[in-house]
Amino acid sequence: MYRFKRDYELKIHLETQLHTIKPDPKTGDGLRITFDGAKKISGDPNACNIEIYNLNPDKRKAVIKDKEDRKTLIPIELSVGYQGSLLLLFKGNAESAGTRRSGTDYITKIECLDGGHAYRNSHTSITVTKRKDAIKKLIDDMNRNGNITYGYVPELEEFQRPVVMSGDTFRVIEQLLNKGDSYFIDNEQFYIIRDGETLEMTVPIISAETGLIDTPEKKEKSVTFKTVINPEIKLGGCVSLKSATAEHLNGTYKVLSMNFKGDYMGADWTQSVECKKV
After folding, report:
1. Residues 6+ apart with CB under 8 A from 37
2. Exposed, middle or buried, 259 (CB in 10 Å: 0-12/13-18/19+)?
3. SS3 assignment, position 117
4. Domain range holding 174?
5. Integer Rg of the chain from CA
6. How many domains does the chain have?
7. Which backbone phi and psi does 75 adopt, to 5 degrees?
8. Do 126 and 165 share a domain, yes or no?
9. Per-run averaged pLDDT (10 residues), the chain, 278 residues
10. 275: which residues sit within 8 A by CB, 6+ positions away?
C-alpha cells in the first residue's frame, strides 16, 4: 500500500532559478526519480545519488557539472513522505551531474554530498583561546563556502593557552574534539555530539504498523533494522523500536547511520538503520 501513497519533492537550485520537481498532488503522476543515499555520524560528508527520468531538454542541459569543478554550487533538496506530507530526507549540493540515454529514457544522474562544497573548499587559519570561538569561526568558514549552519554543539573544555589552527577546516575540527565526540553534517547543519548523548528530536516509533520490515538484528554493540522510508529518523536522534518477533531488542536507540533507497515508480522504498541502545 505504501507504493501508492508515496510522495516526493526535489528542488534543484541553478544559479538564480529554483526548479521544483514533484508529482501531481491529485493524480500522483510525475517524473520517475530514484535515489540511493547513506548517512553516518563519522564526520565525512554524507552522500546521495539521485536519478531523474526524462527531464526536459533545457533542464538537462542546465544540470551539468564535472567532478573537477569545485566552484559551481548546485544546491539540492530531496523531501519524501506519504500523501503530500513531506519531510526533508537529504540536503546538499551536486558534486557531479550529467545525462545518459537508456533505450527511450534520458536519465539525469546527480551525485550529491551533504556539505560537499564546504568540504572541498573551506580553509581556516585562526588563533583562539576558547573552543566555542573556534567552532563559531569554523562554521562561519563552512557557511561562506557551502551554506553550512549551526545545528548543535555541547559545552567544550576550554584551552589552557592560545592555540593556532590552520589548514583544511574539516581537519581543524578534529583537533577540537574530545575523546568519544563525533561530528557530522546532516542536511547542511553542523553537529557535535558525545558518545552517550543524543539530539533532542521527535522519537519515531518503529514497528510493523509504521513500516518495520523483517526482524531487527543485533551485531556486537549495535542493532540494525529495516523499514519503509521514514524521514523522521534522524542521525544522532532516537527511535523507539517495537518488534513483535525480537522483543528482547525493543527499547530506545540512538541512530548511528542509515542507508535509504527509493524508486518512485519501482519496488525500492526502504531504509536500513544502525543504532545503539540508549
Report:
1. 46, 47, 48, 49, 89, 90, 112, 259, 260, 261
2. middle
3. helix
4. 122-193
5. 20
6. 3
7. -70, 140
8. yes
9. 75 91 88 97 92 94 90 94 92 96 97 92 86 86 88 85 87 84 94 91 93 94 96 96 97 97 94 96
10. 222, 223, 224, 225, 239, 241, 253, 254, 255, 256
Final residue before a domain boundary, out of 114, 149, 169: 114
> Residue 188, exposed/middle/buried by CB under 10 A (0-12, 13-18, 19+)?
buried
CA-wise closest residue to 90 among 213, 229, 255, 206: 229
| Tens digit of each residue's pLDDT (9 = 90 or more) over 203-218 | 999 999 999 999 999 9
Tell the residue number behind the cell numbers 526519480, with chain if given: 33
CA distance 30 to 265: 9
Of the candidates 161, 206, 207, 169, which has an alpha carbon nearest to the alpha carbon of residue 185? Answer: 169
pLDDT score recorded for residue 4: 54
Which pTM does this prediction carry?
0.93
49 falls within a domain: yes
Residues 24 and 95 in one domain: yes
Does 169 share its domain with 95?
Answer: no
**Distance between CA atoms of 36 and 258, rounded to whole angstroms?**
11
Q: Is 167 within a domain?
A: yes
pLDDT (0 to 100) of residue 178:
82
Q: Is 233 exposed, middle or buried (0-12, 13-18, 19+ CB in 10 A)?
A: buried
- The enclosing domain of 100 has a CATH number of 2.40.10
Q: What is the CATH number of the domain that holds 128?
A: 3.55.50
- Dmax over Cα atoms in the chain, in whole Å? 65
Final residue of a domain: which of 193, 219, 245? 193
